[in-house]
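Tokens as discussed.
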């Protein structure tokens, strides 16, 4: 299986990485391991599609965006999980990692950094570098990687001036992050311009070709990305698990790059964990846990490698290859290695979560009608399995019936909850909380702040700036990005941004866009106005009627239920226009009499019920409310369902939340 493998001895690739005085004994010249990274919607997955098609790994019969294989990825049009593919070009095997572009899934980029030797940084030439671009370049610099810069969507250039503007913005960004002049000159002198959708590349941004291919990108990967280094000092097999995948036929397996040695089908290896599940420690100052008992040993019954989008079995692999090894118990950042290895492969720990939610069993009167997994033990087991696979989240058990889940943002947590509800789980969710920190010296309480870029039409400038100013935002810069778009750069506390994406779409009639990136922890901001959503609360159980909902419309800003929907006491059925909570009866029937009335033929036309996506409704939960999540419905409700109980608690001055 290793025929055709070649090595180049004592060659230094400092030109690729921007490193000096760093040489390795040998390299695998027949392999390149690269990741394609970019901000969301800049065209990563489309570019991977084109590379696979032009290399012959895909045909015209294959679907578009083949790397977005998850159902949620196709529905939302974004990449959520990092995935590996492979293609052959000029006898060189190019392993490509497609990564998410949304900042909530930045951990997916962090976890694959140990697998790659090069980076293709894709930038939309119209938008220029965005917050996620800076995040990626930060991580790349820490790893000593100098990216290959590709500007996409040249065929959709809105203004010729954007070419020079985007180039200048990239240079300023590279300089601010810490790249030196030599590195910046190298990056800027090898820029490729492309249209990933049309499938052509060019070196001249002022000439748009009508036909072409991806030859420039293939050549750049082979010529400018460092081959995998081979550690000749160690002959023993070692691999750091970076990704986890599974399917019904192959089962669960770990994906990573072989750091040293080789492995054959039939070998016996073991796992060394750099994380102790009891203490949550890492290599940064802790002792690794080497589990040499029977449960840690792995009989290598199969080895997998990627060929295009297909998974194929191989009998032997060696250092530099990216492979999959079946394992039921090991997880991400475990070192899989030969039995004589005792030290794990070091890794960079993940950035800390900034937002948390509490999960508990569903206690509503409609419990169990839609889902078949309602017990807290079932929910807890599912969350524990997720925490083992998804290293971007953390899990803590607060009580026998409650778990705390922490992540990078609302969308990341919403994707987890959406996957659970599709698997048949029912549960309750409390209001999201920002995760605070503490200054080590002064013991001052700190909260997370984010860099925010907002693109809006000029007529919406005042409403957007007014909202961000009221929620602790500090305006950093303001510019006319294009003829019809204003770009505002803010520093905002995460607290003030919870739920703002849906409000921005509403305030700008769907035209506004917001991009966020974690900046730092700062002292608490006291200039944040709390957004209070005043609810309409059902006082009776039953089914909502058209008659009752039509009488509520005059007092309602929004209604969440439609005629025929099941409701119960304490369920929130809408938002009121007023400043105080209103109890209502959405099940009220129209009185039927034998007296003829003049309006008996009146036609009642109701506004459509407002059905929100999970990440939108997640940020509308108030402190005394819960979100009931089932496979068929999302329902807001009071934590205390009984109206009488809530009144009694308020009279006693006690909280009605959890």
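Sequence:
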């Amino acid at each position: 299986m290793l025929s055709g493998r070649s090595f180049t001895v004592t060659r230094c690739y400092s030109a690729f990485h921007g490193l000096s005085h760093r040489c390795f004994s040998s390299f695998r010249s027949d392999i390149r391991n690269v990741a394609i990274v970019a901000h969301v919607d800049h065209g990563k997955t489309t570019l991977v599609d084109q590379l696979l098609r032009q290399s012959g790994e895909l045909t015209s019969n294959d679907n578009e965006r083949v790397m977005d294989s998850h159902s949620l990825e196709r529905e939302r049009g974004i990449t959520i999980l990092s995935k590996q593919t492979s293609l052959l070009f000029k006898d060189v095997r190019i392993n490509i990692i497609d990564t998410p572009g949304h900042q909530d899934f930045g951990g997916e980029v962090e976890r694959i950094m140990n697998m790659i030797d090069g980076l293709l940084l894709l930038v939309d030439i119209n938008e220029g570098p965005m917050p996620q671009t800076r995040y990626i370049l930060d991580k790349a610099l820490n790893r000593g990687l100098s990216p290959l810069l590709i500007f996409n969507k040249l065929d959709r250039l809105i203004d010729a001036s954007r070419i020079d503007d985007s180039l200048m913005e990239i240079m300023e960004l590279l300089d601010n992050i810490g790249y030196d002049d030599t590195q910046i000159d190298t990056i800027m002198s090898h820029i490729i311009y492309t249209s990933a959708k049309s499938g052509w590349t060019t070196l001249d941004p002022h000439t748009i070709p009508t036909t072409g291919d991806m030859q420039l990108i293939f050549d750049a990967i082979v010529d400018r990305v460092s081959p995998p280094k081979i550690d000749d000092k160690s002959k023993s097999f070692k691999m750091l698990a970076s990704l986890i995948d599974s399917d019904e036929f192959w089962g669960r397996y770990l994906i990573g790059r072989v750091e040293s040695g080789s492995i054959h089908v039939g070998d016996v290896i073991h796992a060394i964990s750099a994380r102790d599940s009891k203490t949550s420690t890492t290599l940064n100052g802790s002792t690794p846990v080497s589990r040499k008992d029977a449960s840690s040993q792995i009989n290598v019954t199969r080895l997998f490698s990627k060929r295009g989008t297909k998974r194929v079995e191989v009998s032997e692999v060696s250092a530099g290859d990216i492979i999959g090894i079946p394992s039921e118990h090991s997880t991400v950042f475990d070192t899989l290695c030969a039995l004589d290895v005792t030290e794990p492969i070091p890794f960079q720990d993940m950035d800390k979560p900034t937002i948390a939610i509490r999960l508990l069993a569903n206690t509503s009167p409609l419990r169990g009608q839609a889902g078949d997994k309602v017990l807290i033990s079932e929910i807890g087991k599912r969350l524990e399995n997720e925490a083992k696979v998804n290293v971007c989240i953390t899990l803590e058990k607060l009580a026998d019936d409650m778990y705390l889940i922490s992540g990078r943002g609302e969308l990341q947590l919403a994707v987890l909850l959406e996957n659970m509800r599709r698997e048949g789980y029912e549960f309750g969710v409390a209001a999201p909380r920002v995760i605070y920190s503490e200054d080590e010296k002064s013991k001052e309480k700190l909260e997370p702040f984010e860099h925010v870029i907002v693109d809006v039409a000029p007529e919406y400038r005042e409403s957007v700036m007014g909202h961000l100013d009221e929620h602790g935002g500090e305006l950093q810069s303001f510019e006319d990005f294009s003829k019809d778009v204003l770009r505002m750069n803010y520093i905002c506390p995460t607290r003030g941004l919870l739920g703002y994406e849906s409000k921005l779409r509403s305030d700008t009639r769907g035209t506004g866009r917001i991009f966020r990136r974690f900046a730092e922890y700062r002292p608490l901001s006291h200039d944040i106005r709390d957004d209070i959503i005043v609810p309409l609360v059902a006082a009776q159980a039953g089914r909502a009627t058209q008659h009752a909902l039509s009488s509520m419309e005059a007092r309602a800003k929004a209604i969440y239920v439609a005629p025929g929907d099941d409701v119960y006491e304490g369920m929130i059925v809408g938002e009121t226009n007023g400043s105080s909570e209103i109890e209502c009866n959405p099940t009220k029937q129209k009185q039927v009499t034998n007296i003829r009335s003049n309006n008996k033929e009146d036609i009642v036309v109701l506004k459509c019920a407002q059905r929100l996506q999970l990440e939108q409704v997640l940020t509308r939960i108030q402190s005394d409310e819960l979100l009931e999540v089932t496979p068929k419905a999302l329902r807001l409700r009071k934590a205390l369902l009984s109206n009488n109980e809530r009144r009694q608690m308020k009279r006693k001055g006690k909280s009605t939340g959890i």
